[in-house]
């Protein structure tokens, strides 16, 4: 039984997440159901269920089952984990936090920033004049690139046929994403923008794309730990020595840019970023220990 769990933990976590999402949808309709949220959430969930059923049937009876497994079954769990973030918003997962009576921790996070850094690090970039203009636009690009990084990373190793590294990277990212979502429920933090009292919107808030995404897809309490920080560096850490030097250089630049962007755009506290960096090592260790035939680093 233990060997089965270790071998198929990614798939089991994917199924559990979809099951809990479906149950939560039925038991607790989203508060914005009048705006189509409930309909969209159910459509996504049941479409995903039908899709999985069709793929299972196809892989059972198709002579090309191996190809289907490689490009759908193997890649599917990481896609569900990444897109699962949107489910937190669609299903109004903050109701769980409210039910548990957990208040937001933004003031505590800001106090931690002041204690550690003297002020929240965003103010450094503000003082240097780097929170608007070209630099902020570049940072916005890095920030928006984040959701693609897990998919590109696991896709690289899958397409190259390096299955051992693919499984390790997929396991680490899936563990990081789902445990991170649990932290969002138990440690609700909205980010510095929640405490901002500026007379005008920040650079990020003033962009139409961010306004659209924040209104329709962003989960409000998604800051601690900073998965924008954790997952790109987790990719770098688990891929060291396994990818060409030019690809590792690109991964490091992307991870550094995404990390800095979370501060420049006033999305995360400094303590969120530190927690994200620390998050890398237990996730990597658990991923290695949980795979069949692997030992902790």
Total strands: 0
Q: Give the radius of gyration.
A: 20 Å
Q: What is the succession of H and E elements?
A: HHHHHHHHHHHHHHH
Query: How does the major sheet shape up?
Result: none
Residue runs with pLDDT of under 50 for 5 or more positions: none
* Nearest-integer average pLDDT: 83
Q: What's the quick description here?
A:
This protein has 297 residues and is mainly α. It contains 15 helices and no strands.
Essential attributes:
0% strand, 297 residues
Describe, in plain words, how this protein is organized in 3D:
This protein has 297 residues and is an all-alpha fold. It has one domain. It contains 15 helices and no strands. The longest helix is centred in the N-terminal third of the chain and has 25 residues.
List the helices and strands and how they pair.
Elements: H1 2-7, H2 9-27, H3 37-61, H4 65-73, H5 76-90, H6 94-99, H7 106-117, H8 122-127, H9 133-145, H10 148-159, H11 163-186, H12 208-216, H13 227-239, H14 245-264, H15 270-290
